[in-house]
Amino acid sequence: MPDDACLDELAFGIRYDPVRDPRTRRNARSITGELVSIRDSVCHVFESLGEMRTAIILDVDFDVVAYRTQPERMRLDDGGTYTPDVQIRWRDGRVTYREVKPDGKLAEKPDLDGRVDPIRRACAERGADFEIVTDRWYGDPVRLRNANLLRHAFRRSRVDDVAVVVDLLGRRGTLPLSEISRESGLGPAGHYAALALAAARRCRVDLDIAIGFDTMLRLA
User: Fold this and answer.
1) Cα-trace Rg, the chain
2) Over the stretch 74-100, which tens digit does the pLDDT of each residue have?
3) What are all long-range contacts of 33-37, with beta carbons under 8 Å and residues at least 24 apart?
4) Beta-carbon contacts of residue 65 (< 8 Å; ≥ 6 apart)
């Protein structure tokens, strides 16, 4: 049989090489695995529920151009090293390195054992910001439901249905999901095709507002 690297290439077309691979360190106290991006078929690794949910949300965020989990190992000016959980490249040109922590763990060590300032300096040297997000962000039920819904719609939709919705929005401009389903003649398939466009960042949706039949969509 081919090795794991070959299987990754066969399955996803793109080989992802994180600097730290939690898939080789599975244990009963952590959730490890991989998420295949709908953006570019890159396989992103994660080693906690928070990291998995963060990747799910970033994968469909209109303002995110690209992201990578476990992207690099930084040498800090205090002599230590640090591996960010994720690097994010934003549509406006900013780059952010992000640490993902549950609220409880961050409350215990709000300065990450005194490493926050060295980490910020290392990120600044790269022209980037540093931030810490907790389950108040990645566990928000509306944001997480929207992200999962968009990823599901992307995988479920047919290319021909998406083309019909693109043509409809190109002619009509802005329409609510309910009207897209009706006017496209596709019914529920039109609903999912429209959400697939949002997942592919062809339409902007606010992930913090629950997606429903009255959600307005237009081509970006």
Assistant:
1) 19
2) 999 999 999 999 999 999 999 999 999
3) 35/59, 36/12
4) 89, 90, 91
